[in-house]
DNA sequence: ATGCTCTGCTAAATCAGTTTAGCGACGTGG
DNA sequence: CCACGTCGCTAAACTGATTTAGCAGAGCAT
């Protein structure tokens, strides 16, 4: 790429000045005593030649590359990754940076490759992202420079960006309470593994905490809590069927994510029950499917783009070193209503 | 990043040789007359020091960066992008390259920024990707180096990688014919804009061609063709309801994509019709939702990862300069059966 | 003994920037 | 009249690799 590009030397020559002068002017160095006229000439020359500095040459000297490494365990399949990347991309562009993306797939060999590629290229910082909110071990090799954890925490005291799952849980509980639901609120998606092992998930426990504490504050307890081995539609379907077999039918169901909710919709459809007439449903994530369901599913949205954006901001502008909790906004659709009187 | 890394000079010193010798040995240069012993010493020294070449320094001289730019119109929201990126990432890693990702969002300013970032960094090649299979205009500035179009074509004669939508259409038609469906096959998702304007979509027309020619070869014509302003669930829902109002009910429905099929499922569920007992449904894309539906939706999968992978291969290993059609495999699930006898 | 080739290796230039150290001209105070 | 400081600018070093040009010594033929 890059046909005969103009170099700094070309600019300097055209401006009738030295490379030093040109460099200083173009970098807006303070405290230099170059005349206003010299400034003009350099800018003009650079403009006329369409000059753009060679990043390799510059970073050889300065050790800065205006490049951020985005390392994640799994990039694809999930649109979650896409959102994180897009947010990061936007924020990076605003700060004149670019993203170098690598994926470890949780594989040690791939991780090593990613780390080496990053170190070889002297990136200015690393965003280490996980696809499921969880705790992970950061490879020590990258701790030499700035690191931000995205959708993850680690044993090391590194700045991290997380969705506010607990807040979302509270908000969801409040939403149901506000509609008048009380003692017949059920939950689908209990899962000890997810709740207890932070290396698997931080979201399950946080969401549950938010829900429970808010209900408890209103003097309400969950009617039942359906277990699910995974948070997939088929498990939501099964859990909902079990729920409908019980003597007391709930007035509202909280699903731990939208895929479970989708399964719940399927079971309710088969049972001939209507949402939200017979039962309200509310959930977490704002998977695209939430908007496609009939009726649309009310859900607390994972703020992917915000998170990706925040990660870059913390990395480049410096964070307070702690955790950034990004709020999960509630998407209000038609799946929640007041219970039958 | 990168605490005191060893440089080539360090390696040379430790090996008791010149930088020249060290460089040649490590690059495996042919035709050099360095002794076997010199080779040993250099390798040993490099190993002991954990030497890794500085990419900036190297590329300053060689103009090679082992970096590929992945430019796309829209990265996020769609998991399609994720698949393309992941495939490209894998293939790049196998060839010791790394991906620099930028997004234009279809915005001229952003595109300019992306191009400049790419040129400044002297990437070895560019993958220009579109999220919807379509024809696009490649900015002339990147034509100085190797370019591969991914999921897109362009007026310029550039190598491109596309899904085989026409083949998929044919395969879908054959699948229905093989099950015994004949004169009562309907289609949902006609859309003149998509079919006629290659800048919007190449897929619509290709899929339709494949379907029609295969049916025609069997002496069959489509029963009806439902129009849809967009390929979203709500439009599939509406189209399916219209279809059900007609006197002859089809035995099978081909949806132009899975989101339409999802809408169709919703309409069928409401109408109390069962899939595939009353009606078979088949579709394109293999959106994750296809596997989540009850029954699972048979669909021709967009081969995202293969395509991303292929793009890198063509870029780096050299393609034949033409279009690479990547086959769309049929995911057989339970939504297709023989029509009622 | 001289010239030649071949072997094994190295000094120095180069890539395109940034940064350090300092030079000549001018004005000014003693 | 001279020392000194300020102004406006530049030469040269430096970053870490690759690459070109070429040197010293050995072996061989004449």
From TrEMBL, chains A, B:
State the CDD domains in the record: HTH_LacI, PBP1_sucrose_transcription_regulator
InterPro entries, from UniProt?
Answer: HTH_LacI, LacI/GalR-like_sensor, Lambda_DNA-bd_dom_sf, Peripla_BP_I
- What are the protein's UniProt keywords? DNA-binding, Repressor, Transcription, Transcription regulation
Read off the SUPFAM superfamilies from this record.
lambda repressor-like DNA-binding domains (SSF47413), Periplasmic binding protein-like I (SSF53822)
SMART domains, per database record: HTH_LACI (SM00354)
Q: Does the keyword Transcription regulation apply?
A: yes
Gene3D superfamilies in the cross-refs: 3.40.50.2300, lambda repressor-like DNA-binding domains (1.10.260.40)
UniProt domain HTH lacI-type: residue ranges? 6-62
The molecular function terms in GO held by this entry are: DNA-binding transcription factor activity; transcription cis-regulatory region binding
**Recorded superkingdom:** Bacteria
What name does this protein carry?
Alanine racemase
Native source organism of the sequence? Micromonospora sediminimaris
**Taxonomic placement:** Bacteria, Bacillati, Actinomycetota, Actinomycetes, Micromonosporales
């Amino acid at each position: 790429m890059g046909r005969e590009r103009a170099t700094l030397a070309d600019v300097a020559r055209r401006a009738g000045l030295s490379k030093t002068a040109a460099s200083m002017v173009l970098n807006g160095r303070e405290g230099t005593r170059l005349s206003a006229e010299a400034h003009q000439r350099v800018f003009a020359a650079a403009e006329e030649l369409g000059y753009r500095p060679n990043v390799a040459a510059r970073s050889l000297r300065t050790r800065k590359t205006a490049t951020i490494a985005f390392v994640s365990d799994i990039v694809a399949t999930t649109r979650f990754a896409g959102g994180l990347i897009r947010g990061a991309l936007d924020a990076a562009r605003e700060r004149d940076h670019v993203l170098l993306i690598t994926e470890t797939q949780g594989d040690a060999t791939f991780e090593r490759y990613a780390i080496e590629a990053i170190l070889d290229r002297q990136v200015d910082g690393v965003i280490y992202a996980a696809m499921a909110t969880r705790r992970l071990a950061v490879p020590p090799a990258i701790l030499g420079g700035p690191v931000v954890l995205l959708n993850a925490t680690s044993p090391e005291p590194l700045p991290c960006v997380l969705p506010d799952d607990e807040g979302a849980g509270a908000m969801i509980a409040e939403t149901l309470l506000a509609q008048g639901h009380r003692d017949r609120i059920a939950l689908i998606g209990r899962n000890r593994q997810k709740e207890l092992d932070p290396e698997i998930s931080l979201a399950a426990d946080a969401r549950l905490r938010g829900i429970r504490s808010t209900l408890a504050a209103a003097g309400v307890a969950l009617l039942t809590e359906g277990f699910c081995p995974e948070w997939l539609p088929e498990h939501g379907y099964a859990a909902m069927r079990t729920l409908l077999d019980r003597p007391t039918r709930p007035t509202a169901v909280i699903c731990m994510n939208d895929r479970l909710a989708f399964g719940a919709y399927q079971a309710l459809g088969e049972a001939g029950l209507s949402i939200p007439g017979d039962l309200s449903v509310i959930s977490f994530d704002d998977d695209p499917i939430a908007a496609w369901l009939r009726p649309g599913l009310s859900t607390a949205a994972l703020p992917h783009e915000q998170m990706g954006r925040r990660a870059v901001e913390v990395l480049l502008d410096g964070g307070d070193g702690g955790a950034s909790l990004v709020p999960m906004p509630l998407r209000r659709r038609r799946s929640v209503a007041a219970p039958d009187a």
